[in-house]
Amino acid sequence: MELKIKAVSPKIGGEIPFPYYASAGAAAMDLHACLDEPLTIAPRALVSIPTGVAIALPSADYVALVFARSGLGIKHGITLSNGVGVIDSDYRGEIRVGLTNLSDTPYTVQPGDRVAQLAVMPVVRAQLVQAEDLDETARGAGGFGSTGN
């Protein structure tokens, strides 16, 4: 699958790399902060980080998903402000990463820092069928913690 990517900042490809897969087995590519200067995220603050790139997914058969970087979350309490970012196939604007600081310590993002991961996945668009009843299962309507966890 070919993914078209466009630099929307002159820093991309020079000071700041295009997104890339960090290893042969990586499922997602790293997104970098395209900043002019360091940006400090105060405890429990929300920020929007530009990446300097835009993409063109080839069709509605694909979605790009922005995920948090586990190291930032575990080591510093930095995670995505919206859980997972969804980039629809018809979006052509700059990819931005919403971050939040869950820790009690300010965290500074430097220009070029890896701030998130971008994965491209297939999409299945469901055909909704209204129903009066749903098939029975062993779990039924058991919700949070109903399976013992």
From TrEMBL:
Residue ranges occupied by any dUTPase-like domain in the UniProt entry: 16-148
One Pfam family, short name: dUTPase
Reaction(s) catalysed by this chain's protein: dUTP + H2O = dUMP + diphosphate + H(+)
Names of required cofactors: Mg(2+)
Enzyme Commission identifier(s): 3.6.1.23
UniProt similarity note: Belongs to the dUTPase family.
Functional description taken from the UniProt entry: This enzyme is involved in nucleotide metabolism: it produces dUMP, the immediate precursor of thymidine nucleotides and it decreases the intracellular concentration of dUTP so that uracil cannot be incorporated into DNA.
Name of the protein this chain belongs to: Deoxyuridine 5'-triphosphate nucleotidohydrolase
Provenance organism: Candidatus Intestinimonas pullistercoris
Gene it is expressed from: dut
